[in-house]
Hints:
This protein is an alpha+beta fold and 154 residues long. Helix content is 27%, strand content 38%.
Amino acid sequence: MTVTYDELGPGDAARCAELEAQLFEGDDPWPAAAFLRELASQHIHYVAARADDKLVGYGGIARLGRKPPYEYEIHTIGVDPAYQGQGIGRVMLNRLLDYAGDGTVYLEVRTDNVPAIAMYESAGFVKMGLRKRYYRVSGADAYTMKRPAREATT
Length: 154
């Protein structure tokens, strides 16, 4: 299997919503319209992972603020359950972090999502807080995590 990575487009919104329903069942998964709104924003960047021309993963990051130094927030990373454990999420995370450059990056992750937490920690994220009942539908808690700004090298 060959996985290719490119930008997510409006034509991918329905497939993203389909994956959301599988991945985040019980946690208010995003509908296709939410992805279309995200993709229409000029300060949000999405990556896609495709296997045999089928969308198997997506990830998005938003640039925050109007002037540098910018901060960023990862909005979502999702990988088709049939393709998990193959490093697809890590490649997408790395591409989102490349987009953020040296900027500070934030995210929220369910406290029981041990594989995602381990991936984020290995990428330099640290837990900075707990959001009780962050996921409204299920009532699950989330950690707020941060990858501190890196010193720019010249």
